[in-house]
Amino acid sequence: MGEQSEVKFGNIKENSMDDEETRQSLLxxxxxxxxxxxxxxxxxxxxxxxxxxxxxxxxxxxxxxxLQDAQMHLGxxxxxxxxxxxxxxxxxxxxxxxxxxxxxxxSNPTKYEDYMSKVKLLVVSSxxxxxxxMLHKKNLNLVAxxxxxxxxxPEPIEILVGxxxxxxxxxxxxxxxxxxxxxxxxxxxxxxxxxxxIVSQDLLGFLLNSKEIASPEEYTSFYKKARRVILxxxxxWPIRARLLDQIEQ
Length: 249
Description:
Oligomer: single chain
Number of domains: 1
Strand content: 15-25%
Low-confidence stretches: 1-17
Structural class: alpha+beta
């Protein structure tokens, strides 16, 4: 009697008195329950700064340095970097901690503002099979669009994102069974051999400007917030008769 009551469900401990300091965020729970051997894949979209658009080697070096810092002792990060005239697409595969390092890095615009003006996080997937054996880079021989943002689609954003991921998946599966050297050579002619796998610049620009696609900063903020689950029956009107009976008693 007089002691704080508690109820246990598996590994979850729920106290009758909430302690805000000890409540876990969704990100905490994912990190605890995810082993380091599980492979993750993330896809980033970015708009290159105007003064860097003719300096694709600088963007490439920037990503190489970032991935080198992120992999630490957790194993090599692999992936694909597609360099467009005014945009870039980065597919990165590796351990959870390394992927989270990159997301946190891009959550602070001051760290990349010398190279990019806008970054969007298209997807983060877990328990994936790696497509790449190294970080492959490809400068796409395309003409920059004359007008940016002059694109619209009746399709919902989920369909458009799925379309981009499907196209990137074509490249990944095409290179996955090849050695590093063979994959690098094959990537050089990917525009000719797999033109359907090249995401259009207009679509990339549309997704970068979409408010429905989260930035790394928005993604991180969402997952670091503590969550409080409220039952629907306690937040709808009219109140269910069962609860009214309890109140009258």
